[in-house]
Amino acid sequence: MATSPTTGTRGSLTIDAAMRRAFELAAERPVLGPNPRVGCVILAPVSAAAGTGPDAPRAVLAEGRNAGLGPHAEAVALADAARRGIDVRGATAVVSLEPCNHTGRTPPCSVALADAGVAEVVHSVADPHDVAAGGAAYLRGRGVTVVGGVRRREGEELLGAWWHAIRAGRPYVTLKTATSLDGRVAAPDGTSRWITGPDARAHAHGVRAGVDAIVVGTGTALTDDPSLTARTDHGLATDQPLRVVVGHRDVPAGARLRAHDGGELVPLRTHDPAEVLAALAAREVRHVLVEGGPTLATAFLAAGLVDEVHAYVAPVLLGAGAGAVGDLGVATIADAHRFTTSHVRRLGDDVLVVARAERPQEEES
């Protein structure tokens, strides 16, 4: 016999606290892959007999988070409840993202919640994906109470690059630069290893481990012979990003990019950043890291396709040599490409400045 729906073994939470817990669950999942990070907490129904209101703490019946391409957070939470014999009829599901309403690799979460008898669904962010959206409308049609927008800004921040990629219809682009104090990426003879120190390089590998693809030009591939792998203190990261090379020249047979210790090599025979992103979007890539030299950086910046810059700056002066960016066609300061500083961090003797593109049109009223 199923346990009473008011029986919980994981403490009690208000709806607001349950949403924060859903965020915590979602954040436990790596950011890689085409699917968003989502967490779900199922709370017991409001007990009229106990005189509790909708804002009072309620027993936590079950929890779940998605795991890459596997079951979604809501399905995991429902399975958690079923496994422990807990009846969720009349319960409230608190989810960080609107339940999906389509059949893809898994069945629709909206249908699963309604079929389980959940009486209320509270979500943070409305699903921006055209294919998956519509869960809230479906649930309302089944008589389920739906409340959206709880801690929405935090929910959007948690979704990160996935959120921006789905809305823009292309991968989120982070541009990495590593320069001297005077903006040089290499000395006059072309040498560039190492402008920054070990702490900055270790941080950059951590960033690599959190993206779906690393993009360089054929010039960088041929000159530097990089491996474009993501490494940790213990060796290679478990999941390796795609290694994307942009340009018409071939990657040599013996290049480190062809070694089996990294992600798939993806040659894209184009110089158009928009074509690069379209090809990667077709692969369900959500976040790319542009690590190429000044030519590639300039192309992405000139096309207005850089969402975030990671600028590693070393206390080194070169006085000459290649700059981080080429001519962007800026004739006057009013036409400068503006970014907003997100944060600044010291990494050994170096400094990392993270700045995001100013896109006022994306702000909601």
TrEMBL record:
Spell out the NCBIfam families in the cross-references: eubact_ribD
| Cofactor binding comment, as recorded | Binds 1 zinc ion.
Q: Highest taxon of the source?
A: Bacteria
Q: What are the CMP/dCMP-type deaminase domain coordinates in residue numbering?
A: 13-138
* Keyword Nucleotide-binding attributed: no
Q: Which annotated residues bind NADP(+)?
A: 178, 194, 220, 224, 293-299
Report the catalytic activity. 2,5-diamino-6-hydroxy-4-(5-phosphoribosylamino)-pyrimidine + H2O + H(+) = 5-amino-6-(5-phospho-D-ribosylamino)uracil + NH4(+); 5-amino-6-(5-phospho-D-ribitylamino)uracil + NADP(+) = 5-amino-6-(5-phospho-D-ribosylamino)uracil + NADPH + H(+)
Q: What is the lineage of its organism?
A: Bacteria, Bacillati, Actinomycetota, Actinomycetes, Micrococcales
Keywords linked to the UniProt accession: Hydrolase, Metal-binding, Multifunctional enzyme, NADP, Oxidoreductase, Riboflavin biosynthesis, Zinc
Where are the coiled-coil regions?
Answer: none
Necessary cofactors: Zn(2+)
- Residues bound to substrate: 192, 208, 228, 231, 291
- A Pfam entry, by short name: RibD_C
What this protein is called in its record is: Riboflavin biosynthesis protein RibD
Q: What does this protein do?
A: Converts 2,5-diamino-6-(ribosylamino)-4(3h)-pyrimidinone 5'-phosphate into 5-amino-6-(ribosylamino)-2,4(1h,3h)-pyrimidinedione 5'-phosphate.
Q: A Gene Ontology MF term for this entry?
A: zinc ion binding
Q: Which InterPro entries match?
A: APOBEC/CMP_deaminase_Zn-bd, CMP_dCMP_dom, Cytidine_deaminase-like, DHFR-like_dom_sf, Eubact_RibD, RibDG_C, Riboflavin_Biosynth_HTPR
- Entry's EC annotation: 3.5.4.26, 1.1.1.193
Which family does the record assign? In the C-terminal section; belongs to the HTP reductase family. In the N-terminal section; belongs to the cytidine and deoxycytidylate deaminase family.
Instruction: Name a single GO biological process.
Output: riboflavin biosynthetic process
Q: Does the keyword Hydrolase apply?
A: yes
Residues recorded as binding Zn(2+), renumbered to this chain, are 72, 100, 109
Positions annotated as active site in the UniProt record? 74 (proton donor)
Report the pathway entry.
Cofactor biosynthesis; riboflavin biosynthesis; 5-amino-6-(D-ribitylamino)uracil from GTP: step 2/4; Cofactor biosynthesis; riboflavin biosynthesis; 5-amino-6-(D-ribitylamino)uracil from GTP: step 3/4
Give the source species. Sediminihabitans luteus
